[in-house]
Amino acid sequence: MRKLYRSKSVIKEAIQYDGKNIQEILSFMGVNETGQDLVICVETLENAGKQEIAVPGDFILKGTKGEFHSCKPDVFEKCYEEIKMSKVPNIYLDEGD
Questions:
Q1: How far apart are CA 41 and CA 10, in angstroms?
Q2: Fewest Cβ atoms closer than 10 Å to its Cβ: which of 29, 52, 72, 89?
Q3: How far is it, in rounded angstroms, from Cα 22 to Cα 31?
């Protein structure tokens, strides 16, 4: 019997790279590096060994297993909508925040 399915909603943390906020991105990703000429490379779980290079405008998302990946702004806008932190149940918030 044919059925319809919808993917489960998943709350993900994300930050948009604007070309100037590299230290904020590195902190978000838990990387302790400094400098202005760093390139943001993200190695995803799905493509082990393959690195994605984030460019200004891209979003960096933290996945459900703690992995990171980049997402182009047009795809991000189609797939995600911002939720206000006051509406996020505590189970989704990191204890360190």
A1: 24
A2: 89
A3: 11
Evaluate if residue 89 carries a pLDDT over 80: no
Q: How many residues does the chain have?
A: 97
Q: Is the pTM above the cut of 0.90?
A: no
8 A C-beta contact, residue 40 and residue 22: yes
- Measured over the CA atoms of residue 34, residue 16, residue 93 and residue 79, the dihedral's sign is negative
Check: CB of residue 52 under 8 Å from CB of residue 70: yes
In single-letter form, the type of residue at position 9 comes to: S
29 HSE (CA, 13 A, CB side)? 25
CA 90 to chain centre: 19
